[in-house]
Amino acid sequence: MTVAKRIIPCLDVDNGKVVKGRHFVELREAGEPVELATRYRDEGADELVFLDITATVESRNTLYDVVRNVAEVLDIPFTVGGGIRSIEDAYKILRNGADKISINTMAVEKPEIIKELSIKYGAQCVVVAIDAKRTYRTKSGFEVYTHGARVPRNIDALEWAKRVEELGAGEILLTSIDRDGTKEGYDLELTSLISSNVNIPVIASGGGGTLEHIYEALTLGKADAALAASIFHYKEYTIREVKEYLKRRGVMVRL
Block means of pLDDT (10 residues each) for the chain, length 255 residues? Predict the structure, then answer.
């Protein structure tokens, strides 16, 4: 059975505001979380991802009140990540309205938390975010980074993707650090490499700038979903425009 491809806008949140940067730095404000969430819901987003991008770096909890306010206006799946360091942190995020939780740094530092979360809440609730960069220090050529893409871990991105699947992750949010915020297109080599070697959905992230880029991520990159931020935040394209384009190109989407 063919599964419809998903289009997922992302809210990178810093101090309660949606921001967008380049290579995870040079952040500039892009709007209010609730306002943008409402717009994307109305435009036909399949899901919404909310990442508190400085929570881990600043060693603080996720902004639960902002998560709750966003959740209240949504009727689509809602994934929240950033600052999750324990099962209790995940529980608080789910209690405040998230449908899925996304973990990155803690997954690398304490892999068993993936299995614990999967057993407790179900694999469909557990998204492991993998921030990968071309360093050629690993066999695949892609290395895992944590702490908001600031800390190299000397872990092969492909081997890590396989392991998180084995541990019970239900989905992978794969971001190319090299392409993040560049709008030059997704890293198709990275995306295809991971998508072809795991049996769980992969969300392509980092570099979406045109309709063609999204099409390529879902076809050449073999991703199950495409995540984008800048092109939606700054109204270069609507989600409806993206989906209509994809449908014309023969990609199955939910209109």
Answer: 90 87 67 95 98 73 87 98 92 96 96 98 98 96 94 97 98 96 95 98 97 98 97 95 98 96
Q: How far is the C-alpha of 104 from the C-alpha of 84, rounded, in Å?
A: 9
pLDDT of residue 229: 93
Tell me the torsion sign for CA atoms 188, 194, 197, 198. negative
CA distance 165 to 171: 8
Answer whether residue 1 is part of any domain.
no
- What DSSP assignment string belongs to 132-146? EEE-SSSTTSEEEEE
210 CB burial (10 A radius; 0-12, 13-18, 19+): middle
CATH number of the domain at 216, please.
Answer: 3.20.20.70
Residue 154: partners with Cβ closer than 8 Å, 6 or more residues away: 137, 138, 143
Is residue 255 domain-resident? Answer: no
Domain that holds residue 184: 6-248
The CA distance from 225 to 202, in Å, is 7
Q: How many domains does the chain have?
A: 1
Catalytic residue list: 12, 131
Decide if 171 is inside a domain.
Answer: yes
Kindly give, in sequence order, each residue whose CB lies less than 8 Å from that of residue 232, ignoring residues fewer than 6 positions away: 9, 40, 238, 239
> Model pTM?
0.94
Q: Kindly state the tokens that stand for 232.
A: 């939606």
Q: Terminus-to-terminus CA distance in the chain, angstroms?
A: 18
Distance, in Å, from the CA atom of 202 to the CA atom of 191, rounded to the nearest integer, reads 8
3-class state of residue 190 by DSSP: helix
Report if residue 135 sits inside a domain: yes
